[in-house]
Amino acid sequence: MTGVILECQGLRKVYGELVAVDDVSFRIHEGETYGLLGPNGAGKTTTIQMVVGILARDAGQILVAGQPHDVHLTRGKALIGYVPQQLALYRDLSARENLRFFGRLYGLSGRRLAARVDEILALVGLSDRARDRVDTFSGGMARRLHIGVGLLHRPRLLVLDEPTAGVDPQSRNAILESVAQLAEEGIAILYTTHYMEEAERLCDRVGIIDLGRLRAEGTRRELVTLVGGRDELLLTATGDLAGAAARLAGHRLVHQATVEESVLRLLVDDAPRALPQLLAEAGQAGVTVRGVEVREPTLEAVFLHLTGKALRE
C-alpha cells in the first residue's frame, strides 16, 4: 500500500443543536480515488470544507502527507487542489488568463508559470481554446478548465466536489477519463458525486455518509458483502436444466439455483471466481451452456440499504 496522503480522525462539526458531522474518520492513499457519497444534507460538504481548510472543525484531526492540517496552517493547503461544485472562474477572461491569474495566487511566475499553464491546457484538452473567453465555453469545457486550476500547483491531494454536474455526456466522459489518469499518476483524489455510476467506475474505495456519520466504507465488493449482496450468474443453456439446477443447488458456492425458460439462474458469492467450477458442474449435469452473464450487486443497492434514500435525493 502506498503512503497515506489524507487522514481524517474523528471529525466533528456542530451548528447549535445540529450535529453536521459526527466522528467521521477515513484515509486516502497516494494514487487512490476515494468516493464520499451521501444524500443531500448528509454532511459531505461540511466534511470537504474541513478537509480543504476553509472550515474549522470542533473536534478531530486532519493530517495531509503526515502533517497536521487546519484553517490556520498553510503547509497542508499547499498540497491540496480544491475544485468546488460552483465554478470559480472569471468568465470575461480567457482560459490562459484564468490559469495565469490563479497560478500567480499559488506563487508561480515567469517561465515556470508559462510552462505550467501550457501543460494544464494540454492536460484538460483546451490548448486550441487557450485565448477564448470562458463565457464562450460549454459547461463541460468550463468544468475541465476548473479542474485545471486545481492542478496548477501540482497538489498531492485533489478534492473534486461533483465535477461533472450539469455537463453533457461527452464532456462528462472526458472528465472521468482525466480523473482516472490523475490517479494513475499518483495523485490522491477525494471525489463526491450524485451519479452512482461514476463512483462504480472511478473509486477504489467508497465511504457512505448519512446524517453526519460515516455508515460504511470499503471497496465495492466489501460494501456489497457487508449488506449481504450476492452475484447473479445467468447461464443460457440447453439440456436438462432442472436436473442441473438441482445438482448445483447443493454446491458450496451456490446459494440458490432456479430455471427460467432456457436460463439457469444461480445466486453466488463471487461469480468470477465460481464461474469455472460451476460451468464444469453444469456440463457434468447434462447441459450445454450457450451464454454467460454476470450481474454484480451495485453500490446503489448498498446506498439504499444504508440510508433509505437514492443518491440523487
Molecular structure report:
- With 313 residues, the protein is an alpha/beta fold.
- The chain folds into 2 domains: 4-225, P-loop containing nucleotide triphosphate hydrolases (Rossmann fold, 3-Layer(aba) Sandwich); 230-296, 2-Layer Sandwich (Alpha-Beta Plaits).
- It is 35% helix and 30% strand.
- It contains 10 helices and 14 strands.
- It has helices spanning 44-52, 95-105, 110-123, 139-151, 169-184, 196-202, 220-226, 241-248, 271-284, 299-307; strands at 4-15, 18-29, 33-37, 59-64, 67-68, 80-83, 157-161, 188-192, 205-210, 213-218, 231-239, 254-260, 263-268, 287-295.
- The strands form 3 sheets. The protein has a 6-stranded mixed β-sheet with strand order 6-7-8-3-9-10, with helices on both faces.
- Strand 4 and strand 5 (67-68) form a beta hairpin.
- Helix 4 runs parallel beside helix 5.
- The two termini are 35 Å apart.
- The mean pLDDT is 91.
Summary tags:
Rossmann fold, 10 helices, 6-stranded mixed β-sheet, 313 residues, 4-stranded antiparallel β-sheet, Alpha-Beta Plaits, alpha/beta, elongated, 30% strand
